[in-house]
Every structure is written in structure tokens, then in C-alpha cells.
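--- STAGE predict ---
source: upstream dedup step, 1 unique chain passed
mode: sequence only
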Amino acid sequence: MFQAHHGLVFRTAYRITGNAADAEDVLQTVFLRMLRRDQAARVLERQESYFRRAAINVSLDVVRSAKDAHNVPLDEVPPGALPTEKQKPESRELRECLRGALARLNPREAEIFAMRFFEDLSNQEIAKILGISQIHVAVILHRTRTRLQKELRSYLGERS
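--- STAGE serialize ---
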């Protein structure tokens, strides 16, 4: 199962966390949890769905815990870790703001948003994976986008 799905888990985690080291941690956590809970038998039927959902949920946990982490003094930042000219600090800050707002959503909203906009799944695919109606998916996405837009507007308003 690891061979077949480690790429999916890593890509999903990287899209949400924006950090390769965090994505590796998510990858390890997902497979270790599966082994510890002896979920391998249950996972066999819907492997891709299980691993995608697990990666999203663990990634959101990582994002939530990262906002509580302490800042590192500038003189302790390793060389090359600062943004380059290609990566504008504003865009990095905006992505961090989005990740923080996503972390404040309830788990179901965050999961559906991540599946739609990070994993590029259709509403129909999300509904099938989660066992809910497409209409329910659409309603949750609409509410979530509205909430995130408000939070990002307030962020952008502060920066002006």
C-alpha cells in the first residue's frame, strides 16, 4: 500500500502545508497510524479515498499546530531559507494567511475545500468519496469560500 499511495499522500500534504518537511511528516504519520490501528483490512476496499482523506486531515493538523509554534530569530534561519526575488514575501504571506484561515475551519469544511481546490476533484468525486450528495458538497464549498474570502479581504485590507 505504501508503494502504491505514498506519492498521493505526499502531494496532498505538500499542497496543504506548502512545506516538503511537513509533507514527509504527514506521510509517515498517515502510514504509522494505519499500522497502529490495524486499519489495513478496512483500507483495502477504498485505498485512494482513505489515503487522500487521511493526508488532508493530518496536514490540517500540522498547519493548525504550526500557527502555535514559536518564531525563529532571523540569525538562526539557515541560508537559502529566506524568500528569493522570484518569491515575493507578499505572496508567501498570503498563502500563509490562507493556510491559517483553512486551519480555523471545521474539519469537514477544510477537507472538502482541500479536495476541491488543492486536489482538483470535482464535486461529484468528492460526494462519492465522502458518501454525501453533490448538493451538500456544493453548499459546503460555497459557505467555505465565502468565509475564506472575508478572512482574506480583512488580511488584504490590513496590508493596504
